[in-house]
Predict the 3D structure of the following.
Amino acid sequence: MLNTFKKHIENKFSQFASSRLLIAVSGGLDSVVLTHLCYKLKLNIALAHCNFNLRGAESDADETFVLQLAEDLDLDLEVFVECFDTENYAKENKLSIQMAARKLRYNWFEELSEQLGFDYVLTAHHADDNLETFLINLSRGTGLDGLTGIPEINDSIARPLLSFSREQIETYANKEKLTWREDSSNASTKYLRNKLRHDVIPVLKEINPQLLQNFNNTQSYLKDSKNIIEDRIADVSNTIIRKIDEQSISLSIVEIKKLNNPKGYLFELLKDFNFTEWDDILNLLDGQSGKQILSTTHRLIKDRMHLFLSEINTEEINPIIISKESKDIETTIGKLIFEDVNAVLSKENHIIYIDKDTLKFPLVMRKWVEGYYFYPIGMSGKKKLSKYFKDEKLSLIDKEQVWLLCSDDDIIWVVNRRADNRFKVTENTKSVLRIILK
């Protein structure tokens, strides 16, 4: 296996030769074999072990074993150990124990990599793990991504054993007379993965001894299909999607409806934003303006001929108080600069000139709400903001981004859009205040 592994690294992971590698070592068979193989290839490695404190003395014995493994290989081999209060973390974050352990583990690996300059974190996932993940995703319902399995490289996480079976790994370990730790929790079938491992996959292998090889071929075909789909999605995205800002995009309903399978395209376009109700999203195309669908992280809202996707903002937006002495104020949409000037120099949306004597300090920057009105400069009479926004053809997302600069309850400026007539500079103005949004 060593020669096969060596060729595999040279073909698929040639960058390892000049990289700093951190190997995630539990003490189990797979990670011990991965450590030995990398050590024999003289790769630049260090070890990282997570003690999740879930199995009492057994967890501590795993930690001791990993420390001894490193010492037996090379006294200078670095080992990093972190102990976690996994159960409390799971409760506080409302996660399963398995998900909590996964989150803690990968967060720590990322910290180590950033702080100590590791290029890749190596995990010992193998072909049988990949089959188990496929069956788990299949049983829960999944798209093509869930059927293409565990990636060999995902950002800085690499899985160089993914093309090797558990049988190959165990044969190598026995031949090399390696020792490893057995996790007692792996024998329990209360977890779906273990039930598949112990009760389902052995039967499938008995029915078809070539199961893993055939599965690997199938995944290769699925990955090819996925690449074709990704190319197609990239093409249609150019006509469907328009970026609004860093947190939001719009999707053209007209262009989506031209496609043969709108639901399928919507899934591919929006699958990374944690939506689950795809029939509801399809119905949104013909829904009323203002109708919206929420995921755990994003919102999709219908507005006339577009769907607007934006991140859900959980932060409370408080009014900003501006004193008479303020010269500049930082806001979420830019910096407001206040300057006393002698005359009106230019007229632009991001600059207004105000008769300072008409103001009542402190001024307030706030979000608009339904029912607000103002007296648009250049017009006679007042106008509801909602009507003004409609005339300006602002989308629902655009309206949510609008800020108002107010004196008491009166609007001075629909910021970056329109000033109010009541505060304009006239021939009787004695003190001119220039306000700039920069």
User: Anything to note?
Assistant: The longest strand covers residues 44-51. The mean pLDDT is 90. The longest helix spans residues 211-240.
